[in-house]
């Protein structure tokens, strides 16, 4: 599968005064838990060691997000981010699989 980068406006900065847009690798993905699902555009990060999503998505999927094994992750935000891992179903195009993904509230 191939997904084109999507173009978004960007405010010029002192470092990049002529930049008015940026390209972002977004992938349309479905997150599913039982009969609840969300279709979102997820940021593709080929160097990531796991999938992370907003904690509110986990709640919307009916998960008790903080009642799951967690991992503290460094390098996101301003310190330690706690990711709670649940097994859900993911779908990209016609490809469907189960995966443990992290949900974060930070």
Could you walk me through the main structural features you see in this protein, from its secondary elements to its overall organization?
The chain starts with 5 loop residues before the first strand and ends with a strand. The model has no long low-confidence stretch (mean pLDDT 93). The chain is built from one helix and eight strands, in the order E-E-E-E-E-H-E-E-E. The protein has 106 residues and is mainly β. The strands form two sheets. Strands 3, 4, 5, 6, 7 and 8 form a six-stranded mixed beta sheet that branches.
Structure, briefly:
With 106 residues, the chain is mostly beta strands. The chain is 6% helix and 55% strand.
SSE layout and pairing:
Layout: E1 6-9, E2 21-24, E3 26-33, E4 36-43, E5 52-54, H1 55-60, E6 70-76, E7 79-92, E8 95-104
Parallel strand pairs: 5-8
Antiparallel strand pairs: 1-2, 3-4, 3-7, 6-7, 7-8
User: Could you tell me the mean pLDDT?
Assistant: 93
How would a textbook summarize the main sheet?
Answer: 6 strands, mixed
**Could you say which structural class the secondary elements and strand pairing correspond to?**
mainly beta
Please count the beta strands (DSSP E, at least 2 residues each): 8
Task: Report how far apart the termini are.
Answer: 31 Å
The proportion of residues forming helix, as a percent range, comes to under 10%
**Count of helical segments?**
1
DSSP strand (E) fraction?
over 45%
């Amino acid at each position: 599968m191939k997904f084109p980068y999507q173009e978004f406006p960007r405010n010029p900065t002192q470092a990049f005064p002529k930049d008015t847009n940026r390209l972002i690798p977004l992938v349309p993905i479905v997150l599913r838990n039982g009969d609840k699902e969300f279709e979102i555009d997820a940021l593709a990060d080929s160097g990531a060691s796991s999938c992370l999503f907003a904690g509110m998505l986990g709640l919307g999927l009916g998960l008790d997000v903080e009642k799951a094994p967690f991992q503290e992750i460094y390098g996101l935000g301003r310190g330690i981010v706690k990711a709670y891992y649940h097994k859900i179903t993911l779908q990209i195009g016609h490809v469907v699989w189960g995966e443990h993904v992290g949900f974060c509230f930070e």
